[in-house]
Amino acid sequence: MLAIDITSASNDRFKTWKKVSASPRAIRKEGFTLAEGLHLAMAARDARVPVRAVILKAGRRDAETDDLAQAIADESTVQGVQTKVFFLDDQLFEEISPVEHGAGIMIEIDLPEKPAADDRIRKSDVLYLDGVQDAGNAGTLIRTAVASGVRVIAASRKTASLWAPKVMRSAMGAHFGAVILEGIEPSEAKTLFDGRFLAADARGGHDIYAEEGWEKGPTVWMMGAEGPGLSDAALEVADERLYIPIESETESLNVAAAAAVCLFEQRRRRLRVR
Amino acid sequence: MLAIDITSASNDRFKTWKKVSASPRAIRKEGFTLAEGLHLAMAARDARVPVRAVILKAGRRDAETDDLAQAIADESTVQGVQTKVFFLDDQLFEEISPVEHGAGIMIEIDLPEKPAADDRIRKSDVLYLDGVQDAGNAGTLIRTAVASGVRVIAASRKTASLWAPKVMRSAMGAHFGAVILEGIEPSEAKTLFDGRFLAADARGGHDIYAEEGWEKGPTVWMMGAEGPGLSDAALEVADERLYIPIESETESLNVAAAAAVCLFEQRRRRLRVR
């Protein structure tokens, strides 16, 4: 396989990867992110996502990762430039990998253009993340939303960078089937989306199971941070507050578990009607 | 506050904490685990869990953690021995903490006696974890189960140690309201629990929403590892396989999200009947 060895931490390309692996700002500035693992690399290939580079861990290579790297390099060009394969020194690879003991493959993928808030997005179902800071939760939320049929994900400025490698990793390729809008405060969301704004709020409102009709038409499900829950700004734009009736002695659900319950209750109701 | 300073990595108590923080085997051998954070410390206090020691990060102390440490020390004895408070050097604290930048408080708690498989447990609803290795997922699963009213958690040998500090942290105190049975293979589970064994299986079976009646009587919901899903041994003891109807282009749900959907669909059906 035609590939470029990188063995030095002072290599410019490595230095850029390192920045992107650590900083949301660098992701936006450079216009790309890193996705780790065989599963994500295959999902990116299936979704025909522009891959700029494939990064293999030099000491961890096997036939499966080599074949996949070769196939991606053969098929993919970004702005007329053929995708390159790099063999990266093991220790340097670990420095930029979002997981320990991974499969030894990462891809450098172009971020999509910032989506224009067109009419299709306006009338979509939306998952709105209000300050969800944990990368693992944010990724699981994207994965769950897309699996439930909700493909537009919007997030406030306080939410984790949704293109961060750790979020990519935990979403397991769901990014490639989603429209992602970042840096949207609740008041702006209200102007972008026509759907009914539903606040998942453990502190009150209506029982999600007992309440009828909230699933009709497009919805904008709003989920808040662990601990504080939804911000006042989010509650202000809510058309309805809904809670999940959990056991009385227990306190709350993890935000990703709560979203799974809400988004799949929506899906259940809609499937039932068909 | 009466407290003992620990500043050396060669302190025996610290060395034991370090072992317990890193090794499930050490947890079982020593008979205790570490729970990090204000929330867990408060939950343990509310649940009257035996706390052997409170560990404060020496350089991170504030009035809230100090007061809580003092209150736990005043109230708690384990086998006649008064609970001690320790001020632990910052760097040593970080070495044993399951999170970075935490609140600077950990508690050393006695593991409960291994629960006897009595008649009450036999007739309970159960969540059975078949090889779930990720500690964050395992903790979220316990939290979700307890919130859904399922208080018995059983796990195969390949599942993460459910008393590991990272699992404790992610379950947010749900351990204290649960009965936890570890090292139970599927065939043994079948002899311990009377409930109907339900396999959450993305590969087939019946649609969880369309299928009627599975929620009646006690159930044993079985959830498999990310990737491979349920083992053959688990599928063999299943009375029924159920799948969540996700969007066709998407592949699967995170195991903790899938469990949230299944356990709360069970809860919804049972609440509806009342």
From TrEMBL, chains A, B:
Q: What does the record list as GO biological process?
A: methylation; RNA processing
Q: Which CDD domains match?
A: SpoU-like_rRNA-MTase
Pfam families according to UniProt: SpoU_methylase
From which residue to which does the signal peptide run?
A: none
- In which domain of life is the source organism classified? Bacteria
Its recorded name reads RNA methyltransferase
GO molecular function per UniProt: RNA binding; RNA methyltransferase activity
Q: Does the keyword ATP-binding apply?
A: no
Q: Where is the tRNA/rRNA methyltransferase SpoU type domain?
A: 126-264
Q: Which keywords does the record carry? A: Methyltransferase, Transferase
InterPro entries, per this entry? Answer: Alpha/beta_knot_MTases, Ribosomal_eL30-like_sf, rRNA_Methyltransferase, SpoU_MeTrfase, tRNA_m1G_MTases_N
